[in-house]
Write a structure and sequence with these properties.
It contains five helices and three strands. It has 135 residues and is an alpha/beta fold. The chain is globular, with a radius of gyration of 16 Å.
């Protein structure tokens, strides 16, 4: 038997519960997103993440880099975010421009702050992360 789920209503319910939990928490969770280039879908996804953070009370920081940004600059930003006690999660919005080494950049994230679970340590300790769509 097929059951139709109202995804929008379910998402609202989850966000409401999350907002209540966050309001009672001792800390304000912080999410940082790094976005490189001008890929329109990527910008839309980041905008939706920002909106979800605003709705639930999560501190949100977005770092935009030009398409031709050097890998070194992105890694420096990741290292700074790793040390930032107000940032609890980091997302590298994919895809990255071809001249950047995606795996090398992702491995720079402190695995405890890797929201997507793409870091090698996450894939070792949480095998479900191995089945991601990443190649």
């Amino acid at each position: 038997m097929t059951k139709i789920i109202d995804g929008k209503a379910l998402a609202e319910k989850i966000r409401k519960k999350l907002k209540e939990k966050i309001a009672k928490a001792a800390i304000e969770p912080g999410l940082a997103v790094i976005l490189v280039g001008d890929d329109k879908p990527s910008h839309l996804y980041v905008k939706l993440k920002e909106k979800a953070c605003q709705e639930t009370g999560i501190h949100f920081e977005k770092y935009l880099f030009f398409y031709n940004t050097l890998e070194k600059e992105i890694i420096e930003k990741i290292q700074a975010l790793n040390k930032n006690p107000n940032i609890h999660g980091i997302v590298i919005q994919l895809p990255l421009p071809r001249h950047l080494d995606e795996a090398r950049i992702i491995e720079q994230i402190d695995w405890r702050k890797d929201v997507d679970g793409f870091h090698i340590i996450s894939r070792i300790y949480w095998p479900a992360a191995k089945s991601s769509n990443r190649q």
